[in-house]
């Protein structure tokens, strides 16, 4: 079996000063691909993310009959086709593929088998499968792997789901909903839905494609049936992928600038600005981009990350280096991310001498002197980048599999090494 070589995390005694351009947003790229495949004509996705998660989405849509061509400048030209099986969809470990693709597969004519990495089988999926059944689809199975037996159309209509474990359950149904005969009305019942900005992104992008969406009542979303007119879409830089680089400025007391930070955005990752500010960073929008400068003393935080849980591994890495304890709340749903992120962060940090405790809905991090050791990425891109942040200031940390970053940022090792060298 192939084993990735351990990656000695670059270490520096100097403040990092760097300018780092990050590629396109995973969440926007994969939504744009779905909308383009469901549209009534060809469209172009400019500056898409090229990574494992987006390649899996493109591959899945291609296997269902969509034509996706790469242009010389790395854009994707997408020509919708009649959706049909038989097809095989590999979700890898990508939540966006496993939650967004099945409603599209339900519109296909023929059998579609959906599977992913062995670890993906632990991710919550029953909500998607049950909702599609209630909307008129025929599926076999209760989680990955499962099969969708489509008839080329889906009735749609009202459905109630419990989306407290993932906002992606809602986004997936909304993205395909305009193509259901009755559209879709999704009502959430249960504990609060996490990652709400991501549903905001779904709604914004649907409206950009001419779809009528009513989200005026909390926890209820109506998508009217009608055509999808995918516009040519430019993808913003991935703000969740920018976070480890910005964190390097805080960890080392340096300055990191990320160009093209959007003035306004639906990306949940934008919340990193407020968190870094609370930890003591100064932030400035300069002509070059968003510049973040680390403080002399890094402060602990008490933060509710319910809306932007994907920031947790970075915030935990910084919290472990801070001058006081941190409490992170509202993130019980991270136990169902690519790995159980709460368990993994606790285990990996404590193995290096840290003091992390789990609470029912989060983590308490008490800074301690950390020592050299191996950081296990658990196939999770954000676990891998958290190990890299710690390695910048703690000598002798190696990440067991830095290729885990390939899910959303295959260039991470090169970008990080260049940043650390200065
Ligand atoms: O819709 C999306 O693009 C995403 C939604 C969020 O998922 P959860 O709601 O499952 O946290 C987020 O964590 C994930 O990285 C991307
Ligand atoms: C949780 C994440 O991804 P997903 O749910 O899309 O796999 C993430 O990117 O942090």
Automatic annotation (TrEMBL):
Coiled coil: none annotated. It catalyses: 3-phosphoshikimate + phosphoenolpyruvate = 5-O-(1-carboxyvinyl)-3-phosphoshikimate + phosphate. Residues 14-414 form the Enolpyruvate transferase domain. Its EC number is 2.5.1.19. 3-phosphoshikimate binds at residues 26-27, 31, 166-168, 195, 310, 337. InterPro entries: Enolpyruvate_Tfrase_dom, Enolpyruvate_Tfrase_sf, EPSP_synthase, EPSP_synthase_CS, RNA3'P_cycl/enolpyr_Trfase_a/b. It is found in: Cytoplasm. Keywords: Amino-acid biosynthesis, Aromatic amino acid biosynthesis, Cytoplasm, Transferase. Gene3D superfamilies: Enolpyruvate transferase domain. Pathway: Metabolic intermediate biosynthesis; chorismate biosynthesis; chorismate from D-erythrose 4-phosphate and phosphoenolpyruvate: step 6/7. It holds the Pfam family EPSP_synthase. The active site is at residue 310. The keyword Oxidoreductase does not apply. Belongs to the EPSP synthase family. Catalyzes the transfer of the enolpyruvyl moiety of phosphoenolpyruvate (PEP) to the 5-hydroxyl of shikimate-3-phosphate (S3P) to produce enolpyruvyl shikimate-3-phosphate and inorganic phosphate. NCBIfam families: aroA. Monomer. This is 3-phosphoshikimate 1-carboxyvinyltransferase. It comes from Streptomyces rectiviolaceus. The lineage of its organism: Bacteria, Bacillati, Actinomycetota, Actinomycetes, Kitasatosporales. The gene is aroA_1.
């Amino acid at each position: 079996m192939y084993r990735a070589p351990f990656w000695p995390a670059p270490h520096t005694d100097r403040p990092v000063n760097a300018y780092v351009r990050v590629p396109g947003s995973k969440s926007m790229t994969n939504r744009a691909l779905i909308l383009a495949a469901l549209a009534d004509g060809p469209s172009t996705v400019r500056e898409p993310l090229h990574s494992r998660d987006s390649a899996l989405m493109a591959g899945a849509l291609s296997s269902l009959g969509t034509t996706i061509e790469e242009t010389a400048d790395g854009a994707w030209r997408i020509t919708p086709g009649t959706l049909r099986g038989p097809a095989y969809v590999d979700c890898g470990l990508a939540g966006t593929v496993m939650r967004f693709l099945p409603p599209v597969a339900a519109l296909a004519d023929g059998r579609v088998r959906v599977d992913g990495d062995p670890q993906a089988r632990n991710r919550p999926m029953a909500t998607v499968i049950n909702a599609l059944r209630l909307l008129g689809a025929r599926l076999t199975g209760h989680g990955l792997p499962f099969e969708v037996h489509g008839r080329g159309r889906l009735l749609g209509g009202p459905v109630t789901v419990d989306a407290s474990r993932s906002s992606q359950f809602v986004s997936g149904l909304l993205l395909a909903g305009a193509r259901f005969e009755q559209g879709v009305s999704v009502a959430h019942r249960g504990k609060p839905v996490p990652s709400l900005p991501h549903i905001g992104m779904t709604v914004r992008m649907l409206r950009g494609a001419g779809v009528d969406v009513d989200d005026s009542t909390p926890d209820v979303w109506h998508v009217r049936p009608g055509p999808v007119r995918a516009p040519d879409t430019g993808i913003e830089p991935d703000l969740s992928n920018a976070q480890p680089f910005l964190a390097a400025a805080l960890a080392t007391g340096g300055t990191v600038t990320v160009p093209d930070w959007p003035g306004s955005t639906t990306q949940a990752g934008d919340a990193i600005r407020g968190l870094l500010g609370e930890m003591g960073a100064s932030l400035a929008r300069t002509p070059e981009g968003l510049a973040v400068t680390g403080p002399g003393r890094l402060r602990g935080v008490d933060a509710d990350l319910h809306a932007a849980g994907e920031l947790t591994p970075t915030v935990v890495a910084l919290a472990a280096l801070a001058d006081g304890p941190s409490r992170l709340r509202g993130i019980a749903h991270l136990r169902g991310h690519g790995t159980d992120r709460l368990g993994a962060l606790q285990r990996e940090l404590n193995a290096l001498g840290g003091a992390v405790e789990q609470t029912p809905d989060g983590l308490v991090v008490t800074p301690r002197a950390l020592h050299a050791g191996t950081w296990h990425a658990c196939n999770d891109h954000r676990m891998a980048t958290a190990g890299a942040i710690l390695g910048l200031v703690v000598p002798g940390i190696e990440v067991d599999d830095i290729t885990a970053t390939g899910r959303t940022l295959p260039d991470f090792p090169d970008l990080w090494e260049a940043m650390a060298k200065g």
